[in-house]
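User: I've been going back and forth on whether these two constructs are worth ordering. Before I decide, could you fold them both?

Assistant: Sure. I'll take them in the order you sent them. The first construct and its structure tokens:
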Amino acid sequence: MADENTQLPEGGDAPAAEATGAPEGRRERGSRGGRGRDNRGGGNRGRRDDRRGGRNAEEDGGEELIEKLVHINRVSKTVKGGKRFGFAALVVVGDGKGRAGFGHGKAREVPEAISKATAAAKKAMVRVPLRDGRTLHHDGLGHFGAGRVYVRSAPAGTGIIAGGPMRAVFESLGVHDVVTKSIGTSNPYNMIRATFEALGEQTSPKSVAQRRGKKIADLMARREGVAGQAEALAEAEALVE
């Protein structure tokens, strides 16, 4: 009998189970449960990824965003064993239709830093009212830290007269005619923040008319003068922002 028990057939898993005293049905349920848990985990991860992709598509609105890398800097962090080097990126993102934002990110590698900065810029996008979809409604002044910038509206055909970080902001914003001047620091971070401070003060005739309880045509006529009342009325009718 001892020799028969020690000899196992070629597919001898079942006698081994009987020798250990574990019921065969319980072992099968356990194995199916393990596979079920793995399948459930994989299915949940797949659904989470699908939902995350859907949210990103909704946030972008199906529009192609303009991404511009303004500045990238090598940074270091002193630790016990020495220094850890990384990279810091400054990115400006816009849709070319009056919405723009900026963000910065740090990482050990350049692509990861750029992706972090781009994600931060998409979350911080703001809307700026534009005149005829090409220039600003009025002049503005922005100040942040040691940075001071001036922005002025310009007639058609002027182009973007700006340099460095400010040009990236207006190109991503969708402005075609603008005159700017930077006085003070040349730090790209302060220049970008000062530029957005100036853009945040922009107001459209529509919002001013609603706040003052007047008609848009009255405001436009006052700006153009008495001789240009007809032109102001036509422009007020065609005004979107």
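The second construct, handled the same way:
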Amino acid sequence: MICKIIGSALIICGTTVFGLSRALLLYKRYKSLLKISSGLTVMENEINYTCDCIDTILCRISSIIEMNEIFYNTSAMSRDIPLKQRWKTAVEQDAASLRLTKHDCEIISLLGGELGMTDRSGQLKNIDHIKSLIDIQTSEAKQEYDNQAKMIRGLGITAGIFLVIILV
């Protein structure tokens, strides 16, 4: 009898943790998009008010922003590789850890094509455009989290209780 109770508790705990972890993935995407947007704001300010090269700006952003994977990995790659390719590679490498969707990655990768290629105003316009697209993705991620996270958490608990009822 005690084994059944312990087993039942383990099943319910396991499915609850699974539901919580799945809901956390939705939240991580939302937070990642917010951090990338704030990184782009910092980049915009750095380009606007300093005369540093883009690699120096990327290094500075990676030290300022908490979730700095894309900015840091881009600045850490060999300078022999074009910036567009370094940016795209960094986005692809970090997409899984940041929980970005394919569409998020495509939008963020667009920025790499223009970085360092145009004058200051062209770069600022491009960053502003990408920020507006990321803001749309951020609001979608927030809405998805709000709509689905509670359901996923509840589904984990309910699935555990359902399994226990079937097994007992």
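Notes on the second construct follow. Helices lie at 2-49, 54-64, 69-76, 83-98, 102-112, 120-167. Residues 31-147 form one domain.
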